[in-house]
Write a structure and sequence with these properties.
alpha/beta; ten-stranded mixed beta sheet; two-stranded antiparallel ribbon; 12 strands; binds adenosine-5'-triphosphate
């Protein structure tokens, strides 16, 4: 984490779909806070350019991001682009080339009425999914044989390194308040599973001050619905973290409110983005909830040493949700712009 400075440079990549709509709200809110941030917009990084020029992210843009060290990101993805190289070339490249190995996804129930759970005693979710962000099933290692024929064979390899597993498990223990639950599928995925188990046991033994537990991913999904309040930090691999964090997002009030930080705690670099994607079905309709993007901006502030500003922003979002000054997905009637204005008006 970096210490407070007078002016901090932030790269903004609005991207595709609802990305620009929610990012606008996040930037305006950061500006309203007057936290001494300076924004550089890289709005040419989008599907239009990829379709026109075949360019996802240039080396120059990557270097610009590396120099600034902090990115506010909207979303990447467009129904017109069927080639997965585009999304891989933007977001996965940024995560991998900047070695943003932690995907930090907090889930805190913003308001009682947003919980989808019938039983009131189950509702109080306040946890973080710590998702490994650079390995697992999403490295693109694999291939196919006899592609496009009835004899096609495909392989997508899951990569787990001792370094990758150690640093993510250690990070999870480093941020936990009371407990860490390690989630894997080591009963079925043998070799990677054994590595995660071994590293987790070693790390657990170094942290007797915290409660440690282990769950297979299927049981974790069930327990998250049955007893969400029992979780503090969940640490898991790239794909399980991807899936479980959508579940925790929904338990905490919906995908539109979920924030995330892709960070490298060793270098201090970070890319902050809402958990949702480009949501092509609601683009341009004013239905996109800006809360996930705004709360991602709060994570950015916290990591830049601006804790009181981050808290002010979180309080403002909570207040607007409680007063239903929000978008329809949270029971309000405001459009994206109005919801962003409401959050700014609620800043104290
Ligand atoms: P992508 O492929 O880019 O991830 P997607 O549509 O598959 O896009 P999401 O963008 O995560 O996945 O969205 C899933 C659904 O959740 C959307 O269809 C939309 O209805 C809803 N949704 C996502 N984000 C928001 C938001 N910010 N506000 C309101 N609804 C949202």
């Amino acid at each position: 984490m970096q210490t407070e400075q007078t002016t901090q440079k932030i790269i903004v990549i609005p991207g595709d779909g609802i990305g620009p709509e929610v990012t606008e709200a996040a930037v305006l809110t950061l500006q309203a806070l007057g936290a001494g941030l300076e924004f550089t917009f890289l709005d040419r990084i989008n599907a239009d350019r990829y379709l026109r020029d075949g360019v996802a992210l240039t080396d120059g843009e990557l270097e610009e991001v590396r120099t600034a060290g902090t990115v506010l990101f909207g979303a990447v993805g467009d129904p017109r682009v069927t080639n997965p190289d585009y999304a891989r070339g933007v977001l996965l490249r940024l995560r991998t080339d900047l070695d943003l190995y932690v995907n930090y996804r907090p889930a805190v129930l913003l308001d009682e009425r947003l919980s989808p759970l019938r039983d009131e005693s189950r509702r109080g979710i306040d946890c973080v999914v710590v998702r490994e962000n650079t390995e697992g099933l999403y490295t693109g290692v694999g291939g196919s044989l006899r592609t496009g024929t009835p004899d096609e064979v495909t392989v997508d390899q899951e990569t787990n390194t001792h370094l990758g597993v150690s640093r993510i498990v250690e990070y999870a223990y480093g941020i936990a308040r009371r407990s860490v639950c390690m989630v894997d599928k080591s009963n079925a995925v043998r070799f990677g599973g054994q590595l995660w188990q071994r590293v987790w046991r070693e790390t657990r033994d170094r942290h007797p001050e915290l409660d440690s537990s282990h769950l297979y991913v299927d049981v974790a999904a069930m327990k998250l619905v049955k007893d969400p309040a029992s979780f503090d930090v969940i640490v898991t691999n790239n794909s399980y973290g991807d899936i479980l964090s959508d579940l925790t997002a929904e338990l905490a009030g919906g995908l539109g409110t979920a924030a995330s930080a892709n960070i490298n705690p060793r270098t201090g670099m970070g890319l902050y983005e809402p958990v949702h994607g480009s949501a092509p079905d609601i683009v341009g309709k004013g239905l996109a909830n800006p809360a996930g993007a705004v709360l991602s901006a709060a994570l950015l502030l916290r990591d830049r040493g601006l804790k009181s500003e981050a808290e002010a922003l979180e309080r403002a979002v909570r207040r607007t949700v409680a007063e239903r000054r929000c978008t329809p997905d949270l029971g309000g009637t405001l459009n994206t712009r109005q919801a962003g204005e409401a959050i700014r008006a609620a800043l104290d």
